[in-house]
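Review session, final week

We close the course with one last complete record, chosen because it touches almost every idea we covered. It is SDR family NAD(P)-dependent oxidoreductase, a protein from Saccharibacillus sacchari with 289 residues. Go through it on your own first, then we will talk.
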Amino acid sequence: MTSNNAHEKRPVAVLTASYSGIGTELSKRLAAEGYDLIVVNRSSERTALQLKELRVFAPQSTIHPVYTDLSDHTQLREAAEQITDQHGHIDLLIHNAGVANERLQRSVQGNDLHFEVNTFAPYLLTELLRPQLAAAEHSTVIAVGSSAMRMARGLNPRQLRLPEKFQRFKPYAHTKLAIAAAFQAMADDYAKDGISLRIADPGPTRTAMSLSGAMPWWFPLIRWYFVTALQGSERIYQAISAIADAGKDALYFEFGRPANLPKTAKDTAVSSELLAMLREISRKEINKG
């Protein structure tokens, strides 16, 4: 471990997609709150610009970049190894990265990118970092959600990897619903290690993704309703800082407040099939090396 004794006592946060939109604002908030940061990004150039700003903004924080393509299983595993080599404990893991495409794009594994980035990457990275999360006194894992999942009609886990027919926005909604269902099914087991799994939906937010051509045609008509990236990040931070009520930890937060998940996300038959598929895909990744 490379951290010195002074930083051993500081909380450590891992954040994916840190250099734009909500990620930028979350990075500043976490640094201001005293976290040392591990930022997991694809672009080294954009990360370098952000690190320069963050180190001026919060010189007391140690910020360690990890570069990876979250849709590539091998790179994702290597990123987890880099993180575990740097830190023995992780207090906070935030899956902020997300993908919304206008057309089908496949990963190096041959799967739809929506599935890889929105569902599988948060699942696998959480699994790979579980020992470090368990080593913290109490840790929290946040998957940034989307109200788009309420527009998904049912969930067929086997269709997530490669939809038979690609329809704009549908894979985004379904893969966001899938990670919520996976976290719902995993929450009790992770709680045994003092790890809270949470989904945080900031609501419609003015980001490049939400105003892109991958969204429904009517999205631009309701731009007035969208919150800023700063407001969205604050709603996510409210989910991070929420304290379990009477020993019962809330799983889903909408607009910064505890809310009920869609029924499909709590369907045990669906979640069991989903977890079986995710474990089947990830087993070879976790056992590598």
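Two points worth writing down before the exam:
DSSP finds ten helices and eight strands in the chain.
The domain at 5-287 is CATH 3.40.50.720 (Rossmann fold).
Good luck, everyone.
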